[in-house]
Amino acid sequence: MAIKRSLILAGGGVKVAFQAGVLQVWLDEAGLTFDHADGASGGAFNLAMWCQGMTGAQIADAWRRTKPVDGISLDAGQLARLLWARSIFTLDGYRRNVFPTWGLDWTKINASTNVATFNAFNFSKQELVTFSAKEMNEDTLCACVSLPMWFPPIALGGDQYIDAVYVTDANVEEAIRRGADEIWCIWTVSTRGDWGDGFVNNYFQIIEAAANGHFKRIAQRIAANNELLAQGRPGEFGRKIDLKVLQAEVPVHYLVNFSQDRLVESVNLGVQTARQWCKDRGLALRPGGTAPTEVHTVETKLQFTEVMKGFVAAGEVDYEAGASRGKALDSPASFQLTIEMNGVNRFITDPRHEAVAEGWFECAAFGGRRPISKGTFNLLVDDGDPHHKAMYYCLWFEDAAGKPLTLLGYKDVKDDPGFDVWSDTTTLYTRVLEGHRTRDEDGGSKVLAAGILKIYLADFLKQLTTFRVEGPTLADRTAAFARFGALFLGKLWDVYAVQILPYGPI
Questions:
Q1: Whose CA is closest to 312, among 220, 486, 449?
Q2: Fewer beta carbons within 10 Å, N or C terminal of the chain?
Q3: DSSP, res 28
Q4: Which of 247, 250, 272, 252 is nearest to 262 (CA)?
């Protein structure tokens, strides 16, 4: 008997750009097919493109082309009503700009042979409804995503419709009703459970409570059903159901986001996460290549020079102990690196934010000043938690005898009590390892020395004068530098300003 498989495209506001990246992998590289797909809230956008027959890469590229500001349309006539306003925004910007950018074709969607269910809440009748592909049009799609207060309800057939998120953000029950044996769900609603004050934070935290609460209940029912069947007893659903969930904390706000770069990075994060998710589960992937990151066609480059100084001690593996003993032994260490971003577009939109590092490392224990033969630098990448970032350094060099060595360092960027942004971004925990190793390969390597290097204020001020940008025109160079600045400040926002808004809006 053939296994029936359903795809659940759960909501998550513009976080579903990540979902599109997952689809690039699941549909194209893993070659997965689905007998049914369900979309709720923002997931309905991706479901519409799937119904149209777009490939996973085409869906992902549609989001890569999306400019968030194109979807902004104030409900200007309502703003004067203050607390009695119908909504803050309308979906006119999506109708006028975003849907055409995606290339939505309602004729193709209506004629789709894909079995799909789009969820909306009929507020007039107080019930959840599902639309098939043949019932979809611009109005019904807007009804699926019309988040109360942010957007006005959509009138259909005399009834008022709103986003279904408060009832369900993933209609797993519909997939079960349609006979699914496997349910593949992409979940982007945050499960962190962090409470933040303020109206905007409260609003979306209520959504998280509703969405996660409902989804966990149906997941528990499925688990109980499967357990009963394993015991030879009748389960609630009468058959074993395999619920597969790819869940991620996506570092972009549900709605308050003005950055195309963040949106593209979210798509590419979805690609990277899905590839690893499939690899961990033994799913073979067709070659997919590097996720496209060049959303701007102009080629620009950016570089700056960084100097760090401190102490390391041979034979130590602990950073603090190495720094303390190195200072006592008068064993200074330093480096000067030129960080080169050969393609600012790629650097900014690739979640690894990786650049080339060239220069030298100096320490008497390893032969004095030694040139870096190969180096990489990663700027403010997630350390398994979007609110905890790290900067990574991997530098290959040889000692005076030609012995290959690797300097691995990281800056630990997290919000501790007090003002710690300066110390976090200028303190490098450093180890020197035997052989040439990457950061992923350091586990079995012998640690020869450890310590701490720092950027001192005078060197930081000098560093600010070393920024250089290359590009065809002054406007291109200015835009590249501004985008790099927005990336840097936005990532710091993700760590130190989460109580205002969980993720930087730029």
A1: 449
A2: N
A3: I
A4: 252
How much is the pLDDT for 291?
60
Per DSSP, the three-state class of 500 is coil
| Nearest-angstrom CA–CA distance, 95 and 141 | 10
First to last CA, the chain: 51
d(CA 142, CA 152): 10
- Answer yes or no: is pLDDT of 289 > 70: no
Q: What share of the chain is helix, strand, coil (3-state, %, to 5)?
A: 40, 25, 35
The tokens of 346 are what?
Answer: 């790629």
Query: What's the whole-model pTM score?
Result: 0.94
Give the residue-averaged pLDDT of 454-476. Answer: 96
Residues in the chain, total: 506
Tokens of 173: 């029950």
Distance, in Å, from the CA atom of 231 to the CA atom of 221, rounded to the nearest integer, reads 15
- pLDDT of 444 reads 73
Instruction: Please tell me the distance from the alpha carbon of residue 383 to that of residue 249, in angstroms, as a whole number.
Output: 12
Q: What digits encode the pLDDT tens for the residues 120-149?
A: 999 999 999 999 999 999 999 999 999 999
Token look-up 């200015």 returns 478
pLDDT over 90 (residue 384): no
Which amino acid does the sequence have at 260? Q
With beta carbons less than 8 A apart as the criterion, state whether 38 and 9 touch: yes
Ramachandran sector of residue 78 (left: φ over 0; alpha: ψ -120 to 50; beta: rest)? alpha
pLDDT for the residue numbered 443: 66
Q: d(Cα 28, Cα 31) in Å, to the nearest integer? A: 5
**Mean pLDDT on 291-304:** 77
CA-based nearest residue to 211, from 163, 153, 263, 139: 163
Upper half-sphere CA count for residue 465 (Cβ side, 13 Å): 4
Q: Write out the E strands in 85-170.
A: 116-122, 127-131, 154-156, 159-162
What backbone torsions phi and psi does residue 179 show, to the nearest 5 degrees?
90, 20
Long-range contacts of 421-425 (CB under 8 A, 24+ apart): 421/492, 421/495, 421/496, 424/495, 425/391, 425/492
The crossing angle, in degrees rounded to 10, of helices 43-52 and 56-64 is 130
How far is 278 from 288, CA to CA, in rounded Å?
13
Phi then psi for residue 438, to 5 deg, are -95, 170
Cα 160 from Cα 162, distance rounded (Å): 7
CB count in 10 Å sphere of residue 177: 12
Q: Which pLDDT tens digit goes with each residue over 146-178?
A: 999 999 999 999 999 999 999 999 999 999 999
Tokens 């495209």 found at? 9
The vertex-164 CA angle with 161 and 169, nearest 5°, equals 165
What CA–CA distance (Å, rounded) separates 11 from 254? 10
Helix (H, G, I), strand (E, B) or coil at 51: helix
Query: For the chain, how big is the Rg over CA atoms in Å?
Result: 26
